[in-house]
Structures are given as structure tokens and as C-alpha cells.
Amino acid sequence: PSAKKQPSVPETLRKKRASAKARLAARAKRQPLVRKRQVARRKLIFKRAECYAKEYQQKETELVRRLREAKKAKNYFVPDEPRLAFVIRIRGINGVSPKVRKVLQLLRLRQIHNGVFVRLNKASLNL
User: Fold this and answer.
1) Sign of CA dihedral 100, 103, 108, 114
2) Tens of pLDDT along 98-125?
3) Which residues, including other chains, have CB under 8 Å from residue 103's CB and lie 6 or more apart?
4) Which of 16, 58, 77, 91 could make an S-S bridge to 70, C-beta 3.0–4.6 Å?
């Protein structure tokens, strides 16, 4: 009785399969730790977002409270205005009027999709 001989597998293919198997095993071993870390990070991010939401809610309620107090005392309450703006150039040079072009030049916005921080004062608001 002659037993059929298995076709021999090239050595490179055997090594490739072995290394792939080893990688899979290492990944399976590492997976629970990675998952645990991701869950912890996600909880931290969620907690941080809740803190931000709470902070903005408090600011909003504080603003409403101060407006009502001023109204009650027959006064005016002027809320703070933003002091800083981020300006981005979103159009190219075509069809831009000379005045706008000059403003872009003053703000150093030479290229499209460039941005600058601008301190808001009376002069910069009139630009």
C-alpha cells in the first residue's frame, strides 16, 4: 500500500504562515489590555465633555440671572463681547474687490485656507 505523499510547502510560505500565526497570537494576548485602556479613555473623554457642558450651562444661567437682576433694578446689563476672532480666507483672488483685497493683505491672508487670530477692537471690527 503506497501512501500519498503530501506536496511539500515552500520554506518561505511556511515561515510566513508561522509569523502570521505568531502575530495573531500576540494580538489576541494584547487585545484585552487595549480594550480596557480604550474603555477607560472613553470614560475620561465623556466625563470631560460633561464638565464642559456643565460649565457652559452655568455661564448661560449666570447670564440670564444677571439680565433679570438688571431688569428688576431698572438697569441695563451689557454682556461681554468676544475679544478674539480666528479669521480664515476661504476665497481665492478671483472676483475679490480691491477693498477686501486690502483687508486680506492687512490680515496677512495671502493664501486660500490660511487663518490668523485677530484681537477684536473698534479698528479691527471696522476692517
Assistant:
1) negative
2) 999 999 999 999 999 999 999 999 999 9
3) 127
4) 77
